[in-house]
Structures are given as C-alpha cells and as structure tokens.
Batch of 3 targets.
Target 1
Amino acid sequence: MSLTGIRLATVDDTRGFGRRLAALLHRGDLVLLTGPLGAGKTALVQGIGAGLGVRGDITSPTFVIARVHRPDPAHGGRVALVHADAYRLGDAADPRAEIDDLDLDASASDSVTVVEWGEGLAEQLNEEYLHVRIARHDDDTRTVDLVPHGGAWADRLEGGFSSAEVAGGQGPDAGIGAHPAPGTEGLAADPATTMERLDS
C-alpha cells in the first residue's frame, strides 16, 4: 500500500513528518529520497535524525557523500543513521559502482540508511526499502508520497499512518517540527571526506 498526496505546508512540517517517520524505522532499513533541489529532502532527514535521537548536526552531505550519525543516549538514541547523498554520483561513469565503493552495506544492518537522490542507484543495498518522493509546489508547500518496496513496509505504513491523516492532503502531525530538535542545525563539511562519522 502506497501513501500518496501527503501535504506538508512548511519546512518545519517536513521535519515533523520526518520525526513521525522515524518511529517506523528499524536497524537495517533503507529509505530512498527523491525530489528536485529545494524539495526538502535534507529537512526530512533532519526530522528523521531528531526522531532517532542521533548525534551531530544534519546537513546535506553533498560534499562528503555520506555521514554516520551515532545514537545519542541523552536524546533517546536507539539506532545509528547513515545519511548519504548520491547527487554527484549521477555523472559518474558507473554510479552503482561508486555506491558500492562507499561500503554503505557494511553498516546497513546496524543502521537506518537514508540516501538522497538514491533512486536508480541505491536499491541494490536492500531488496526491501521505502521510497519517499517529495514534490515542491509554487506556494512552497510539499507533497509526499511513500512507496513501499518488499517486506513488511506496506503493513508498517498502514499501521503508522491512518487513512484520515492522508485524506484531503493533510500532513500527519502538522507542525510537530516547529521547534528544531538537537541535530537539526548546520554542520560544516570537509570536501575531502567521503564518509564522516559523528560520534560526539
């Protein structure tokens, strides 16, 4: 069962939706995010990171390609988050090989892995994954579609979001992200790094 047409009125709502989504995530999960530049993919990951209670500020990993955010027990952290960005890999001669070179699968079983721009590139990391499509509209609102692939994803989505929440384009828990949680502020990236671990 796909959930489509979930409307998010603001960027804070997008973060709030990420927090809500985090409650459904377990070790070994793969989430692929697609959407145009400025759609809110990183804001969604900020919400996921806040919901998982991980360490380190979450920003777009475009220059480092992937970051590992360890769980922070002080914020209820329960599982690590691997946040990757495949945007630059789209121009590579063999982008799938570039994904393999990151060794994301080495930590996949112990982490939640979220890959921005991952469609067509990162599906190989797990036969079962959630595809999150984000569209940004002229009024700066977003529409989110959740498309499950394999495993129990459809049941998890059905149990996590009621049909009433999605009906009429109303975003679940709108405004839940209005107060940024730890891990949602900016982080300077080292352009020479391809994988960065954030343990403190």
Target 2
Amino acid sequence: MARPGALRPRPLPPGADRPGQLGAYFPFGLGARACLGIRFALRETTAPLELLLPLGRLEFHSRPSGAAYSIVVRPNGPTPAVLR
C-alpha cells in the first residue's frame, strides 16, 4: 500500500560528505515532523561551553578545510584548541 506522505528516512551513502540537494540537510527536521526536543538539545550543547569558556581564552592551532555532514555539521578534520 503506497503512502505518499510517509516519512522514509535514508542514511547518506558511504563516503558522501554533503547532501545531494542544496537545503536538503536539516538535523532537527522542519514543519509538522520537526523534532520536539530541539530546544533541549541545543541548550544541552551550549551549557558546558557557558561554564568553561569564561575560565580562559580559547586558542585554535589550525583551521579545518571544510565541513562534514552527519547528524550534526562538524569540521571535516581535527580542530585542535587549547583553553588558557
């Protein structure tokens, strides 16, 4: 039985570093199927930084060359940093 409005999530193919269509990547979804926990998730990611960053100064030793796309967007390589 075909369900034209059904959600059919598919993982990115192995080795893919960005979605095939511009604007196709939304980690928490949009519209009627948006994640209910988005505010909690975003708050939980910033809370530790709010406690640590005032203790010193963050110094980056290199810059990543691009972005890697998965559940979250992150640098595509190591980004060494020191909190002084």
Target 3
Amino acid sequence: MAKATKHNTESAQADSVVLTKAQLHVAVGVIIRENQVLLSLRSKKQHQGGKWEFPGGKVEANETVYHALTRELKEELAITVVAASPFMQQAYSYPERDVLLDIYLVTDFSGQPEGLEGQPLQWVSFEQLSSLNFPEANLAIVEKLQQQFL
C-alpha cells in the first residue's frame, strides 16, 4: 500500500491524459477505515444516477486535485482529510462526455461522514465492492482496490 502523506498536490500519475469532447476532471476519494470503503449513492437525477460511487467532485479551474478533493469531501461529507495519497488515474469515455478521475486513497480524516447533499452513504468491505452497481468509469478502481487489498 502506498504511504499516505499529509499533503500531496501532484496528480495520481505523472502522465496526464488529455480529454477532447465534453470533459469533466474529477477528484475522487477512496476513503478507508477499518478495512472498509465509504461509498455514496448518486442521485437518480445525476449522470449515472442510482449507482454507488467513491465520493469526490469536479476539479475547478486553477485548483489542484488535492485541493479539490479536500474541498469536495468537506462539502459533501463534512470530513476533513488528514492523510491522502495518489492511487490511480482513470480516463473513461461515456457517449455524452469524457471523464478523467484522479483517485486518492484517504487513509485518515477527521469528522463523522454524513451525506450533506442528502445522498445515502455506506461502508462496505473490499470483498463487497464487486457486488455493487458502479458507474463504468469506477470499475477499474474497484478492480485495483480488490487486487491490492484482498
């Protein structure tokens, strides 16, 4: 497992992927506690709605991925990231948009996670991940987590 750092502003990989059509750059947090991962259920009104996801959100212009991650997790879950490290980067093309996910392992945080936007949350084991319905862009994350932690 990668050693968590107190602050890391680098992307999950040195080689950045360039997107071309409607593009969305997302900072994603794989939040780990006691061999479980925190998941959030996407609203049915959202793209890929009704599916479980790893929490996170859009990287704004002139914002580092790490800053976007900490901001989004505070806004969505009421937690403060204490330690996170780059895990992987995943580019995926849906028919309507391209997404670039910069995924971090969040191994320490303060606060009690709650769905501040009304979204249901659940802690699941690494084994349970493959039985849940995720957006297609998240499947590579599930696979890598299971390879690394099972």
